[in-house]
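Lab notebook: predicted structure, single chain.

Context: the supervisor wants predicted structures on file for every construct in the current expression panel, including those that have not yet been purified. This is the next one on the list. No modifications to the sequence; it matches the entry in the shared construct table.
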Amino acid sequence: MMQSRRWYDLLHLAMQIGLVGFPGSGKSTVFGALTGLAVETGYGARRDKANLGVVKVPEPRVGAVAAVVKPKKTVYAEIAFTDLAGGEGGGLDRQALNAMRKLDALCQVVRAFPDATGQPPDPVREIADLETETILADLEVAEGRVARLQKDRSNPRELELLQRVQAALEDARTLRALNLGNEERKMISGYSFLTLKPLLLVLNVAEDAVAAGVPDDIAGVPDEIGAAAEKRGLGVVVLSAQVEMDIAQMPEEEQREFAASLGLGEPAKDRFIRSAYQLIDLISMLTANSDECRAWPVPRGTPAPRAAGKVHSDMERGFIRAEVVQWKDLVDLGSEARCREAGKLRVEGKDY
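Prediction complete. Output recorded below exactly as produced.
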């Protein structure tokens, strides 16, 4: 029998997110705000390659458990941001669209401030334009696969599903609106349809908007933007990218103090990660022993054996049971032994 592994359930986030947006939206500035990296921004910036950045996921509960277990090292989850190179003119080129397919989720940066010429923003149009581009890109993929399946008739179930997909796209509907089941999603996962990926909107407001207060969620954004996001089932994060990039490049101990002086409750990175977590519906487990305390992200509802496979494939194959304790119980009681004495440890099987 395989030795039981102690897991402490925590919420956190780990994924690859691509930042997309039209020229002038402030996409690269948002990237700098999220990663703390200094990047070339503005219309004159050379953007033939994507900017890449990895940041640790801020999660105080990981540190709280580590303080009890006292491991040799503590490993936080990481989130990777890709600032995708934009296309020429007002649209996205094929290279950018193909790069988007490799990512777990997408984040559209939308301009909500006047541009350098004083031209007012039109965020609702930007939201609609990106939707149109991604629908057309997905339709090209669906049409090609449907044509091949109609010739060889090798997979009638897949053909039927892709014909539904094609019909929705031809009707200018995203695949998020189809409410596909888990089995259906698995069947077409290899096509990496863009309009099936989770999408988060970042409303990039002017610097002077910070003084008036930046809303925390969709309830605080202008009505027409909120309606556009709600209609599509999209989350919204509001920030002033230039202000947040300046904060992100400060020493860590100064960041929250400066953000508070501007009336911001927390840096944009933290708000973004929380919103993305809600969008993707992830949970985490934390493995902890004397050597290492590490966070592992898993989709909500993942069976315990498959979660064990995140640590090592042998653990999934040999899984029998796991002893589980809530992280708060461990922190409050101070040790695994005390949790056991208090009846806080419970044994869970393969259905957990």
